[in-house]
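Teaching note: in complex prediction, the entire set of molecules is handled at once rather than each chain in isolation. The prompt given to students was simply: 'Predict the structure of this complex.' The entities are:
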Amino acid sequence: MPALNFSEASGDKRALEEGKAFTPRFDANGLVTAVVTDAKDDFLLMVAHMNAEALALTLETGIAHYWSRSRNALWKKGETSGNLQQVVELRTDCDQDAVWLRVNVTGHDATCHTGRRSCFYRTVGLKEDMATLNSDGSQPLFDADDIYRKET
Amino acid sequence: MPALNFSEASGDKRALEEGKAFTPRFDANGLVTAVVTDAKDDFLLMVAHMNAEALALTLETGIAHYWSRSRNALWKKGETSGNLQQVVELRTDCDQDAVWLRVNVTGHDATCHTGRRSCFYRTVGLKEDMATLNSDGSQPLFDADDIYRKET
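The expected output is the structure of the full assembly:
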């Protein structure tokens, strides 16, 4: 368990926006949104969620931890694939309900479970009143089937 | 009302991850997470939420629309302040429950309601086992008190 505890979020808007205390505003499920970009160029890698424990562990260890909503478990990102995220900088927003992690990715330099660098590998466009997806051409940097098969 | 409708999200993981149809996976509240970066340098400007109507209007008009959870209303960002967001590119992630907007901001080139360029103007650090905030020095680009007073 991490040693770090967060104080309860202030109800005072000015304290949240201009104060010096980090008092994250966890939602009804105890989570804040985490935006993760590559420290090299700020390319968006993924969006995830953190509970208090994941956020504290991230601050204490410098390695990104999340809360997996699908597995309902603490998630040290990259533990299986080797693609850990070393946190270069952590920021929060005006009302302290989201954090921004600028990270260096170890291993294959891949963040997406499909093996790609980023989870955001497709652009959205309109074609004859339909919303369609186009790949940006990014290819898997590791064999996801192989890596994740080892887990079970 | 927008003309665009989104098809129901596929239950098939492979279709979501590798298919050509954009079928956003709205959560229990009918929302997807929207990450907004500056098209110039991908600096993170804000995190917000979109319902189907906001997402469709954004795709149809090229101007970012969100769903304000605090006001429970459709929100054309910048309508009051003049800081509209022109969408240069819209992406989605592997499981289609988040979107990434790369935007050009008009007006004061400010996104945060405090008047600053970005909502993420503070870094988080540890100091004697406390999580503290440090400003990155960014200053308001417009007088928020003045701009938003006009609204009422």
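Point out the following to students. Helices of chain A lie at 13-18, 52-61, 144-149. Chain A touches chain B through 46 residues (CB under 8 Å).
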